[in-house]
Amino acid sequence: MNDLRFALRQLLKNPGFTAVAVLTLALGIGANTAIFSIVNGVLLKPLPYDQPGQLVQVWEAPGPGRRMYVSPGAFLDWRQHGSAFEALSLANDTDRNLTGDGDPERVSGLAMSASGLQILRAQPFLGRTFAPDEDQPGKDNVVVLTHGFWQRRFDSQTNIVGRAIQLSDQSHTVIGVLPPGFRFPWEDNAEFVVPTAIAPAEADQRAGHSHLVIGRLKPGVRVEQAQTEMNVVAARLRPLYPPHKQDWSVTLVPMHEQITGNIKPTLFVLFGAVGFVLLIACANVANLLLARASGRLKEMAIRAALGASRARVIRQLLTESALLSALGAMLGLVFAIGTVSAVRNLSAVDLPRAHELGLDPRALGFAGLISLLAGMAFGLAPALHTSRPNLNDMLKDGARTCGASPRSRVRSGLIVAEVALSLVLLIGAGLLLNSFVRLLKVPPGINPRNVLTMQVTLPEQKYPDYERRAVFFERVLERIGSLPGVEAAGVTGTLPLAGWSYGTGFSIIGRREQPASGYAADHDFCSSEYFRTVGIPLLKGRFFDQRDQGDASRVVVISEALAREYFPNEEPLGQRIHLDVVSGRMDEGWEIVGVVGDVRQHGLGESARACVYRPQAAARSAANLVVRTTGAPLAMADSVRKAILEVDPSQPVANIRTMEDVLAASMARRRFTMTLLGGFAGAALLLAAMGLYGVIAYAVSQRTREIGIRMALGASRGTVLALVLRQGLTLAGIGVALGVPAALGLTRVLSNFLYEVKPGDPMTFAGVSVILLLVALLASWLPARRAARVDPMVALRNLG
After folding, report:
1. According to the model, what pLDDT value does residue 398 have?
2. SS3 for 175?
3. What is the pLDDT of residues 541-600, one digit of tens each?
4. Which pLDDT tens digit goes with each residue over 279-291?
5. d(CA 105, CA 604)
6. Regarding beta strands 502-508 and 126-127, do their DSSP bridges make them parallel or antiparallel, or are they unpaired?
7. What is the C-alpha to C-alpha distance for residues 287 and 411, in angstroms, rounded to an integer?
8. Which end of the chain is less packed: N or C, by CB atoms within 10 Å?
9. Listed residue (739, 744, 770) closest to 279, CA to CA
10. In a 3-state reduction of DSSP, which class is residue 99?
11. How many CA atoms lie within 13 A of 101 on its CB side?
12. pTM for the full model?
């Protein structure tokens, strides 16, 4: 306790030193705690379910590393023959229109088998969950609400159980409310659950891919055991499957891995980056302590002369370091809380389990551990040097307190390490920035400016067929087109840059040599004005027009990528193709009447894929409305919504946003990684510059007499300036020389984050190295200028 009180007095005696050291450590410890909290919340904490290790997601697997949604027949096969499972369940997203009391609203939910909530061990807050037979037709008109939805929409009414609500014009009886905080692992926004089952007509359908399947393994069964069993089941049932799926298998993925697998590399890269920042911060504080130690050598000599052992002196100095580190940790926790809160609210990044982020006891323990290790790391070297003074020299009157040569070498070595670590971070950030800039230059294939988008999903009971859906969309587009400020409006199945697409197989009529299983392409449907609305250019032929909108229309427009890949040496216009996704009159085929520009449907970083567009905008009940406006798109949102309500007063819209927002969302995760890594790299650069400045400034103060003598003997101010700058640039140059090979090795982990940029990109390496040397030049120039202004007479007067 005496050591602690004395350490506190020492820090209070030097408030400037203490403030700089604490702020430096707060940056390093706070950044590490924040990223660890994210890693802990997303990757390390088990899922919030009973026995979460038993939860798996089950996929059909066309090949190693590939996963496909599940066909109805495959799900029934697995449920019947998969003895490793306690239960299997469908788990499909389903959006429904909530009508009745209040304004119509589009709400997101899940359609699960009766066993689905039991698989997740969901215990109801009110009422009950599904009975075993409630996923059968005629008994499936029940619904379970989430706690948040019950509070938001139904004002926490305790008599909600037994009430009927209208979901897409179908009456559902509320049988239960899920507990507070309960969330589904793969769908955070789900607000209700309805039962679903495979229709008898689909029981033998093993070709399509439309279902998500989750399961719970039996107690004691490992994932590897279940995978082996399912491989045997798949091989035994292979004759039941279509020819193109004869080599397919089954893949089991632990639920935790399924949810976090895509974000794991990003978080590990960021965790490594903040580790570098902490090392640089520790090196900086160690340099500060070494500089401060020069003024305490006489104090330590007196302690030693009075009988203090070297171990006693080291303990006192390490206590001061630990106290500094603890203060830095407390301030760093404030920084970490703010950072985690900001990340939790970044919905555009789509960070899994974001709602679970926070500084829990594990994160606080991590902060305490790294603060202790940091205190030892930056305090040990200064303590060892300071605890071994030369008593004869230090106790003489007028003895100078200049640092010994070993101490100077240690300080220089720390600066070299800081520069090298900073270079690695800066090069990583530079590669990501270079990649991001290149992505921004990639043409998306559309003109996103002034385009408003929203989702419209028609209830199947009210709009059961193509004709009624077509009438609805025609009337809506007519009303929207007459609004002031609207240039064009259209309907499409999927938005450009949405990150997903429908797919289809197709074959070319009349072509003799083509694969037996046909070709593959993305598939979408749209209205006649869709292409003009979003700015997709016509390259050949024509767009759709009004004569193509009927259900009997048999024309398609294809993308340039499809024409280039499948019609490389022939004219695609007039060719006829079969589409596997369309039933009926297949022999007639579909005539290609136009070729349009490519759209980066799956993101700017993905190549444009072959795509077939059909003209039936009402082919499905769910569609996206796109509106090009003359002014700010969101300002038209209310007018567009009212136009829809004029056609159908009970029809809600959802997910209103601009096309520019869609484009930004497609790059959100890249921007997130680049911003955080860039911020850490900037902090590292600042710390390295501060450290270099401190070392050179200290060296100048120790060489004041030498500089005075040089100038008295005729050295010019320019010579002195060059002498000091040479020292700083030499340290920085050595750091760069060591950092470049380290960066060449470490930046390879960024390969999957880069677009058209190699991890060893010479321009990035050269540019970052030059920037770092320029910063080092500036950090050295300030003390060098002070050295060049030394008055030789003042310096010589102090010679002793």
Report:
1. 46
2. strand
3. 999 887 777 666 789 999 999 999 999 989 999 999 988 776 444 457 889 999 999 999
4. 998 888 888 877 7
5. 32
6. unpaired
7. 6
8. N
9. 739
10. strand
11. 6
12. 0.81
